[in-house]
Amino acid sequence: MASAADSWSQLAGLVTLDELIAAGDSLLCGQTPKSSVSEISEAAARRAGRRGTAVLPEALALIRIGAESPKETELRLLLQRAGLPKPELNVDIFDGKGDWLARGDLVFKEFKTLVEYDGMQHGTDRKQFVRDVERLENLARAGWRINRVMNEHLKNDPEEIIHRVSQSLRARGWKAP
After folding, report:
1. Is 176 part of a structural domain of the chain?
2. Same domain, 53 and 93
3. Range of the domain at 32
4. Residue 133: which of 120, 148, 143, 112 has the closest Cα?
5. Phi then psi for 113, rounded to 5 degrees?
6. Is residue 133 part of a domain?
7. What is the mean pLDDT of residues 82-88?
8. Own/partner pairs for 29-38, CB < 8 Å, 24+ apart?
9. Would you say residue 1 has pLDDT above 80?
10. What domain count does the chain have?
11. Which whole number is the average pLDDT over 101-126?
12. Which pLDDT score is estimated for 13?
C-alpha cells in the first residue's frame, strides 16, 4: 500500500496546483500528522520526471504546517500571491499579560491582525457561534484587527478579501514591498 506522501505525489497531474497544496497541507496538520515534510519531499523526488509531476516542486514550496482545512489553504494562497506577508497558521494568541485569548487561523502577530475563515459550522452550530462571538470580542478588546472570510467571499470577491486584509495590515504598520 502506498504511503500518504506517495499518494499525495501521485495526485500531481490529476488535480489543480492549489488542490495539491491543500492535500499536502492536510497531511501535515493535527496532533498526529499523516506525513512529514521530508516524507513528502522524498515521495516527490521518487516521482520526478513522470508525466504530470512538473508541479510537485512548486506545490512543495507552498505546503505549510498548520493549515487545518482546504479553505484555509485557499485563503492563505490568495493572500500570499497578492504579496501580503506570510501569516502563522492556527496558532495561539495571548494578551500582553500572557493570558490566552484565542487560536487564530491566519495570524499576523507583528501587526496584531487576524484572518479567520468561517465555514458552515460557524453559522449553523449555535454553541460555535457563541464561542466565536466571545473569542473575537476578546481579541478586539486586546487591540486585534479581525478579518472574517466565508466561502461566499472566496468565490464571489477574492479581490475584496485582499483589499480588506491589506488595509488591516497597513493600518498596523505593514508596508508593501
Report:
1. no
2. no
3. 4-62
4. 148
5. -125, 135
6. yes
7. 97
8. 29/65, 29/66, 29/67, 29/68, 29/90, 30/68, 33/65, 34/4, 35/3, 35/4, 35/5, 35/8, 36/5, 37/63, 37/65
9. no
10. 2
11. 84
12. 87
CA 170/CA 62 separation, integer angstroms: 24
Read off the pLDDT of residues 120-155 as tens digits, 9 standing for 90 and up.
554 566 787 788 788 889 899 999 999 999 999 999
Q: Residue 100 has which C-alpha cell?
A: 490566552
What is the reported pLDDT for 45?
Answer: 93
What does the angle CA 24 – CA 25 – CA 31 come to, to the nearest 5 degrees? 120
Per the structure block, which three cell numbers stand in for 77? Answer: 494562497
Query: What does pTM read for this prediction?
Result: 0.89
Q: Report d(CA 14, CA 53) in Å as an integer.
A: 10
Query: What's the confidence (pLDDT) of residue 156?
Result: 94
CB 140 within 8 A of CB 172: no
Question: Which cell numbers in the block locate residue 51?
Answer: 508525466
Asked if residue 23 and residue 83 are part of one domain, the reply reads no
- 70-81 and 158-171 are packed helices; what angle lies between their axes, rounded to 10 degrees? 70
Q: E strand or H helix at 92, and its extent? A: strand 88-94
Q: What is the pLDDT of residue 125?
A: 66
Judged by DSSP in three states, 47 sits in helix
Query: What cell numbers appear for 152 in the block?
Result: 461566499
Question: Which pLDDT score, from 0 to 100, does residue 176 have?
Answer: 84
